[in-house]
């Protein structure tokens, strides 16, 4: 019986294997580890599954991430814009309002100061008005969040809003009168793989695991065996472990774990998520803006964000070309969920051309990637459902780590932090090869 089995080879699973070291083993269903951190593309055009960069307030987690990449690192500086009424406004919106007409700037500052929404908010819609006032909320925050979440903000809870920084009044006033400011400074400077797209990051971790990573292992059942766990594949192979760490989606875990009560299964199935489509559009020449990303709150446009891949790394495009990746969130079961790749591509191109981002005649490449589980939805009742699920898993002695295992909207750095803490909990420290 091995020491620790790690289910899933995304960022969380791979780093769990790295930090736990000898005696741990990672089982991944796909032939390619990496999860949401994978990349895709053909003919020299590459895109990530959504825009990924390395940055963090957690310096230890960031240091471990960069140590894995070694010299394959490229430094970048955020150059995001927001498309608002034909203007390309600096990101975040509150730090770019000097691009707006004077009356709109005045409305934003006055609403922020004289904000009448003083009552303690009980849902996400109320929270936006409570924190930012009417003008900022109505002009950008509300339409953008309705678009990305595909959920009415009044039906979303507050467990996740700590991720959204609050703008200092001083910065807002300075920006309104034309003095430049920067918001979200923890992500102003970032790192990205120089070669291989963001997938080079999980690939580097996977390479360090060697034979402790097994791909193509499709789990059929997980059963208690001799005080530990037996993990059986659909091919009839069995691996045995003293302890289990699960980084696979919680519903996938319950599909193969014996003995899960119906109320726990029901709580897990009621957890909501959005899917993602990424439309990769390659163009000939070098006419695209040097943005990292363009945020688009306009509900008439299918995508909510456009990433400019060549700015992240020239390795993502063939020589003499550029590309964009249009990110489109999809509510499962919706009309948009039924659209074909060609429908998504045609609409994305139409919107890009209408908004002046690309020229239709320069397009030389089009493709779509589909991701079923992309964004955790913090809807009303989320906290109770997650509590039921986590308490049950903990009662079985299984450790959870990762976005859809813990059912938390966490970024790469938080996945690394969670597995750092888990290694401390299970081993009392990191494997020698993982120490900085």
Please tell me about this protein's structure:
- The structure is a single chain.
- With 436 residues, this protein is an alpha/beta fold.
- Strand 3 and strand 4 form a beta hairpin.
- Among the domains are: 187 residues, FAD/NAD(P)-binding domain (3-Layer(bba) Sandwich); 88 residues, no CATH class.
- Helix content is 33%, strand content 23%.
Give the arrangement of secondary structure elements.
Layout: E1 2-7, H1 11-20, E2 24-27, E3 39-40, E4 47-48, H2 59-69, E5 74-77, E6 81-84, E7 87-90, H3 102-113, H4 124-149, H5 169-176, E8 189-192, H6 200-209, E9 213-214, E10 219-225, E11 228-233, E12 238-246, H7 250-256, H8 262-269, E13 273-284, E14 293-295, E15 305-308, H9 309-312, E16 321-330, H10 341-354, E17 363-376, H11 382-395, E18 398-400, H12 403-406, H13 412-427
Parallel strand pairs: 1-2, 1-12, 2-9, 6-14, 12-18
Antiparallel strand pairs: 3-4, 5-8, 6-7, 10-11, 11-12, 13-16, 13-17, 14-15, 15-16
State the secondary-structure class.
alpha/beta
Q: Largest sheet at a glance?
A: 7 strands, mixed
What is the β-strand count? 18
- Identify the CATH homologous superfamily of one domain: FAD/NAD(P)-binding domain
**What does the average pLDDT come to?**
97
CATH architecture of one domain: 3-Layer(bba) Sandwich
CATH class of one domain: Alpha Beta
Give start-end ranges of low-pLDDT stretches: none
Roughly what percent helix? Answer: 25-40%
Distance between the termini: 30 Å
CATH topology of one domain: FAD/NAD(P)-binding domain
Tally of alpha and pi helices: 13
Rg: 23 Å
Kindly estimate the percentage of residues that lie in beta strands according to DSSP. Answer: 15-25%
Shape: globular
């Amino acid at each position: 019986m091995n020491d620790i089995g790690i289910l899933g080879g995304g960022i969380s699973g791979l780093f769990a294997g790295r930090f736990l070291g000898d005696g741990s083993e990672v089982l991944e269903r796909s032939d390619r580890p990496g999860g949401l951190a994978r990349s895709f593309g053909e003919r020299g055009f590459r895109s990530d599954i959504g825009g990924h960069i390395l940055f963090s307030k957690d310096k230890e987690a960031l240091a471990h991430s960069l140590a894995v990449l070694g010299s394959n690192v490229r430094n970048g500086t955020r150059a995001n814009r927001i498309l608002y009424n034909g203007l390309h406004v600096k990101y975040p919106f509150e730090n770019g309002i000097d691009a707006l007409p004077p009356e709109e700037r005045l409305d934003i500052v006055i609403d922020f100061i004289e904000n009448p929404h003083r009552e303690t908010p009980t849902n996400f819609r109320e929270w936006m008005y409570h924190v930012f006032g009417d003008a900022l909320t109505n002009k950008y925050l509300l339409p953008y969040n309705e678009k990305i979440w595909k959920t009415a903000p009044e039906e979303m809870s507050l467990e996740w809003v700590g991720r959204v920084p609050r703008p200092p009044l001083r910065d807002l006033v300075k920006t309104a009168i034309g003095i430049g400011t920067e918001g979200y400074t923890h992500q102003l400077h970032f790192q990205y793989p120089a070669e291989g797209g963001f997938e080079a990051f999980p690939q580097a971790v996977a390479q360090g695991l060697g034979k402790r990573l097994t791909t193509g292992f499709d789990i059929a059942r997980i059963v208690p065996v001799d005080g530990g766990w037996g993990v059986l594949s659909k091919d009839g192979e069995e691996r045995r472990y003293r302890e289990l760490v699960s980084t696979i989606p919680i519903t996938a875990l319950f599909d193969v774990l014996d003995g899960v009560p119906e109320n726990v299964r029901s709580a897990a199935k009621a957890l909501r998520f959005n899917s993602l489509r990424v439309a990769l559009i390659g163009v000939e020449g070098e006419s695209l803006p040097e943005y990292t990303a363009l945020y688009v709150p306009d509900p008439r446009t299918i995508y909510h964000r456009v990433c400019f891949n060549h700015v992240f790394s020239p390795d993502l495009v063939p020589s003499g070309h550029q590309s964009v990746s249009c990110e489109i969130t999809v509510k499962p079961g919706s009309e948009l969920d039924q659209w074909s790749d060609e429908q998504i591509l045609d609409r994305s191109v139409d919107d890009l051309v209408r908004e002046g981002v690309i020229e239709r005649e320069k397009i030389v490449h089009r493709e779509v990637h589909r991701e079923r589980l992309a964004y955790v939805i913090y809807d009303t009742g989320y906290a109770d459902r997650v509590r039921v699920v986590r308490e049950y898993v903990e009662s079985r002695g299984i450790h959870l780590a990762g976005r859809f295992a813990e059912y938390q909207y966490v970024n790469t750095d938080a996945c690394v932090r969670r597995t750092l803490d888990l290694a401390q909990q299970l081993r009392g420290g990191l494997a020698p090869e993982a120490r900085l």
